[in-house]
Every structure is written in structure tokens, then in C-alpha cells.
């Protein structure tokens, strides 16, 4: 990994020698200590032992104006939860077509959310981490193109972004579970942000042909296929299915009063992934170098009820025989695949709400100290999990 | 604690009262109001009214810088920094180059026809043009 970093520095340095461009180095870092407050609970990667590593990270950004209108940017990020292995999270080249229009190509952030672009730059927002009910995608970058149009409409600023590309990689599906292979092809999206001094609003729509290895249903789909029930098997697999993301958000920063809210919907048609809706609303108040805040989040994942009972209890065999569709057709007591499938679909249901309170103290021109206390409530089991985290966020 | 709060209030009052002069090159004929200057320092406008590219410089860590961000841009130092960190780390912009003091800003603006900067209004010389005092 060090070699890659070195190679990047050297190659950027070479570019600079050739065209005498200046390389700007900016960096940001977060040192976060956190833990859950009850025995045997896990949340946001924490358990009941204090961790200094889980959410800590360190990043360097190298950018260089190569020639008129052309620039190159690379962001190298080392995350504590990946043993501080340095990785290129961004690497792209931009061409400023005119004052309003810029095209970029390379590896960039998928603009799902309002804070997507600077998700890791803790210094840029008030929480220790953006509300996780909404900010819940395990992958955040894509390779492809991005067209950015910025303009002013009277006193309003308008930014429109179009993206096209793909993503491929292994991402963790849940805490402790084996990572699943995720492929997003024909990833295309548009988002629009308008802002006026203290107010800003944003809408985003992203689609992708989605394939995710779903190791948990491999056995079940093989069994369904064994009965010739290919449609039913395919409606569980996440294989080249249409995925769609929709997000709305707005924020207010008026005098010392802050308000943010985002609403998102995620759907991968015809797959074991449930329809998901999430939102959060957050208020904050600034008092000199202090900001205090309160946030409510909600997540609701559920399959439409018409997805249930699509697997027949039996199929007819040769000579009018009736064959039960079960895990083991020779055993009359074996569970029916219909029930197993229903179970999988019902098991995808998740409902949770989270309340967080926190404070940020800007104790230094380039650093902020934050404390957040979050209470996550699983609305199905009614279990509470509390997480306390203290962070220092820096930019340099 | 009380005396600390009092000190903070006193200091913020002090910074607000410091007068800042925004200066451009003597050859620059564009007129700039507070909102136009604010837009330049927020990276929202990159050219003067006549179409010339803007070359803006700032100051780093000085009381003039604090007064400028407060009086002209209407943001505290850390809000201004947070605002720019969003643009820097998304590749959407580069903040005005920070210089270390008033004299460095005067020199830059004198030598760059597209230059714009801000200084303590007591330090204004006739080698640069003042577009506004805030």
C-alpha cells in the first residue's frame, strides 16, 4: 500500500515537472473513541469495549492544475476499521469546460446524499457521523464520468450533476457477516441542489442494474430451481435487477439556528432486498464556538405483501401425482419452500428509530471536538442500543 | 467561566469593530459591493463584471481575516473553514490563497491587475484602490 502511495506521489510529481504545475496537498483526519453502553450490544462498528480505531481515519488529497482548465485530484484514505491501510478512494481528472460546466472522469463519490461528497470530512458537519439510518450504504464510490453544472439564478445558486459509470467490489452486508460481491452497472444519476444564502434544497435520483451475491439464499434458490420454479428463484436473487435510489433533502443555516432533513427511498425490484425508506431531521444551535444538536432518524424496510405466497405448495408430477414443494420431498414433515421463502421475505423487515444528542466545540481554527450520544431503538424487538463517541476532526 | 464568556463577547465585539478595506489593483475599473465580494470569497463568482478572471488572496489567522469573514462574508472563522473544506475535498474549488499579513496582500494586489485582497483599513496606501470598507 505504501508503494501505491509512493507511486502516486511520484507520478504527480512527474506531472508537475513536465508542465510545472503546482500540487496542492490538503488533508483531513478524525480521531474517534466510542463504545456501546450496554453489555453485548453492537452498533456503528462499536461494541461494549472502547475503540479508538473503528471510526478514526486519516486522508490526504493531492490536486494539481495540470494545464489551463485541466486538473487531477487523488484522495488517499486510511481507515482505522481497515487497519489504516491506505487506499485510493478518489482519483479523477477534471476539465473545466467553462465557468459553469465541469466534466470529471475517474473514481469518484456516488452523490447519494447531501453530505456524500464530504462524508469523511467530519470537520464539515456537526455530528460525529452523519445520521446512519440514512447514510447507510456500505459502498460510496464509482468509476465513471460526472458532469457538473453550476449557475446562479438571481440570488439563488443552482448546481446540477449528472453521473454515469459502474461499481464493483466486495462490501460488508452486516456487522460480522462475510462481505458480498456487489456489481452496479449502468449506474446513472442526476441531482440538483439550489441554495439561497441560508437555505438549500436537494433532490437526487440514481438507478443501476444491481447484482449482489446473496450467499444466504443460495441453497433456497437452488431448491426452487430444482422444482422448475425459476421465476420464484429469480425473484429472490439480486441478479441484474433494477435498483433505484431517490433522495430529497433540505437545510437551513439561519443566524445561529441550524436545521437539516433528508428523506431517501431505495428499491431493488424483484429481489430479496426489501423496499427501504429512511429519513432524519436534525436541529442545531450555535453559541459562539459551540454547536449543540438533536437528531431523530427513522428506518423502515419491508417487502410489499404481494411478494408473499408466490411459491406453490405442490406441483403436479407425471401421471397426476402431486409433489409437495419442500426442502425434502421424500419427508412429509419437511418445511415447504413457500414457508421458507415467506420467512426470508418477512425476515428482511426492519424498523428502527434513533435519537442523538451532541455538541461540537471549535477549539482551534482547524480542529473541532465533538461528543455524540445516540440511542438506537429496534422497533421490532424494542431493544435499545446506546453509543457514546468523542471525536476530534481536523482539516489541514 | 463567566469571565471567559465576558472575554469572548469582548473579543468578538473587538473583531467586529475592526475596519477592513477591500482592495484591488489601481487599474481595476470594476465596482464591487459587499455581496459581489462575498461571492468571490465563497468561490461562487470567478470573474469580475468585465469578464477578467479574479485572483483573490486572503489572510491566514490574522484579526483582519477574522473581521473580514465576519463583516463581509457573514461567517465565523470555523464556518468559513468548514464551508471551504466541503469545496476543497470535493474538488469543487480552491480557497483564496492565504497570505501572512497586510503588506503581502498590498504587494500582491499592486503586482496583479486581477488581484483582490483585504487589509486593515489603517494600512491603505495610494498604490491600491479601495472598493469598500466594512
TrEMBL record, chain A:
Alphabetic keyword roster: Signal
Domain Porin: 9-379
Pfam families hit by this protein: Porin_4
InterPro entries the UniProt entry points to: Gram_neg_porin_domain, Porin_dom_sf
First and last residue of the signal peptide: 1-21
Protein name: Porin domain-containing protein
Origin species: Pseudoalteromonas aurantia 208
Taxonomic path: Bacteria, Pseudomonadati, Pseudomonadota, Gammaproteobacteria, Alteromonadales
Automatic annotation (TrEMBL), chain B:
Keywords per UniProt: Signal
Listed SUPFAM superfamilies: Periplasmic binding protein-like II (SSF53850)
Top-level division of the source organism's lineage: Bacteria
Signal peptide boundaries: 1-18
Name of the protein in its database record: Phosphate ABC transporter substrate-binding protein
